[in-house]
Amino acid sequence: MTNRVFVIAEAGVNHDGSSDDARRMIDVAADAGADAVKFQTFHADQLVTRRAAKAAYQARNTGRDDGQHAMLKALELDRDTHRMLAAHAAARGVRFMSTAFDLDSLDFLVGLDMPAVKIPSGDLTWGAMLLRAARVGRPLIVSTGMASLDEIGEALKVIAFGMARQGTPAGAADLEDAMADPAAQANLRDRVTLLHCTTEYPAPLRAVNLRAMDVMRERFGLPVGYSDHTLGTTVAIAAVARGATVIEKHFTLDRGRTGPDHAASLEPDQLATMIAAIREVESALGAARKEPALEEIANREIARRSLVAARPIAVGEIFSLDNLTAKRPADGLSPMAIWPLLGRSSSRDYAADEAIES
User: Fold this and answer.
1) Whether 85 contacts 97, CB under 8 Å
2) Cα separations in angstroms, 167 against 128, 130, 132, 160, 219
3) Distance CA 327, CA 310 (A)
4) Angle at 139 between CA 134 and CA 144, to 5 degrees
5) What are phi and psi of 167, to 5 degrees?
6) Cβ(72)–Cβ(53) under 8 Å?
7) Confidence class of residue 1 from pLDDT cuts 50, 70 and 90?
8) Which of the four pLDDT bands, split at 50, 70 and 90, describes residue 2?
9) In angstroms, rounded to a whole number, what is the distance separating the alpha carbons of residues 167 and 255?
10) Is pLDDT of 262 > 60?
């Protein structure tokens, strides 16, 4: 990741299983100015059992409570479609990404030149996935929805082990030892970005807690971004102002469609508006220092004041708060220079409003 906020337009499964719609979504993301467009890659048989129930929001948004397996099976994209989408993204100048939800999918996606590997919130506690992802050699974006700080810390230990050691950890001691390795710590800082996230679709504002980004950044010393599931664009833009280095936001071709994520997604014009606002905030953030901007230096003489005579002052008269004042322009002594003058006698006559000499 660079200092520029990396904006991921999350297509997810909002293609509804249609390769044509997935391709159209790449066009929307590219036209909106996203850095990357991200899908989701999985084999339903490897992701869920047939007894896995839908989340309440999934049942609500799909209008059916027939379990996750059937829903996800209909949303799978085959390997050839992935290759086509990656090629189309490259042609449109937007990076292709997809989140792997099983190990086979991760191995496949590594060959598609993604800028980063995304760990979804639901897999933060899946050690085998964390270990495999850590060894891919790409930056990792780790989403932390539903997680406590301790759970994030445990996940980072597995990632640290994967980056620094061979084999598999035998237990907690191996993970702790890897986490203490300076090389692994450097790898974490260089390659891992944590995403704050609230896993609900849509997420209510009361559950967002953007200040958690500050806590995560302080606790782990890693870059922090935000995966936004709220309605609208306000919270994602606010997260940029709070220091997010990555923003991920779901979008759709039509929020009125039936599917698990459409209702909590942006439509194309909203996506473009959000990204434009992010770039404006990003530009306004500037650097972490306080000094005059180049554009305002010319205004200092106009806006600031100089010490002048408040009324005519005769030679030998004692300078005081009664006969000295400050007025524009700032073409003489700074008003801050008044203190050593007080109690001294004037070396010459001054007319009212005449600039005082040192």
Assistant:
1) no
2) 11, 13, 11, 13, 28
3) 9
4) 75
5) 75, -160
6) no
7) very low
8) low
9) 46
10) yes
Contact 244, 191 (CB under 8 A): no
* Residue owning tokens 């700074």: 334
119 contacts 148 by C-beta, under 8 angstroms: no
The type of residue at 136 is V
Task: Give the pLDDT band (50/70/90) at residue 234.
Answer: very high
Instruction: State percent of the chain over pLDDT 70.
Output: 99
Picking from 109, 97, 112, 102, the residue whose alpha carbon sits closest to that of residue 38 is 97
Question: Global pTM?
Answer: 0.90
Asked if 119 contacts 129 with a C-beta cutoff of 8 angstroms, the reply is yes
Strands (E), the chain: 6-12, 36-41, 95-100, 117-119, 140-143, 192-197, 224-228, 246-250, 306-309, 324-327
Q: Quick check: 279 and 237 in contact, CB under 8 A? A: no
SS3 117: strand
Task: Give the distance, in angstroms, between the CA of residue 16 and the centroid of all CA atoms in the same chain.
Answer: 27
Domains annotated on the chain, with CATH: 6-285 (3.20.20.70), 294-341 (no CATH)
Is the separation of the CB atoms in 233 and 241 below 8 Å?
A: no
